[in-house]
User: Fold this.
Amino acid sequence: MIYNYLELNKSQLEQYNEFINRNKIHKVSMEDMDKELKCKEFDYGRGVLVKTQEGLIIGTTTIILLECNTKGIAYIIKSDIDESIDNKTRVLWEIIKEAKNIGRNNGANEIFLGTKEDSIFDILKINKQYSAIRMILEDRTIKYSPLDLVKLSEENKKEYLNIYNDAFEEVPHGATLTENEVDEYISKANENYHYIVKGNNENIGFIKLYIKDGVGEFDIGLIKSARRKGYGKLLLETAIGLLNDNKVKEIGLIVITKNTIAYNMYAKRGFTQSKVTSNWFQLD
Assistant:
């Protein structure tokens, strides 16, 4: 049987918690598990599937449904199969098939399967098509003068929202930003940093910084009308400069190898791969 997370009773939820924690050093509490799986990305739990066999949980997967209505795309992630069962391939395909059906029913025309574990691809006998990788920068010397910045505020949040969504509209795995998320950015301004970027006194893009434990990462994006005008390398240097100003001990970023324009720009600047964070395959 395949259940939706919201259909599990108390005993099954406890068993599910044991299942996801079975190979972890740092265990996830019932409360944290429930909070994570009932988030907006998984349609508040409806995108979480649990496979049972003879009353025991033997597999699970989740599907991100957030982009189904806006971009027609769904992402299957966090697939996990009991390593002790014999029929891993069949069980995994059953769960993925059900996740695909949920994605299609929610309006997805494209569905991607992603995992941090190469063993999932080995079980399914498919080859990864592209990866999400983390890159780090050694040479932090600024090459170009920075662009002008305006910090995200209550007054310009609609501008920021429009800029962000225009910049990420055609980017692989680019998520659509919502007004509620922008409000949350503003309320947590001391944790992350968000800027509107200007060129020739016009809004051309955004910068989003994350700093934790002395490690800085960033997202950047240009609106479509500002591309191919030389702003890309200036935007990148501006982000690097901001993290230098914050005296971080390391500068990094996550990029999808399928996004060749961004990947090539980062590589040319001197960013080098430090690790693969996930591998991806587009399902038929």
Observations:
- The chain has a mean pLDDT of 95.
- The first strand starts at residue 2 and ends at 4.
- The radius of gyration is 21 Å.
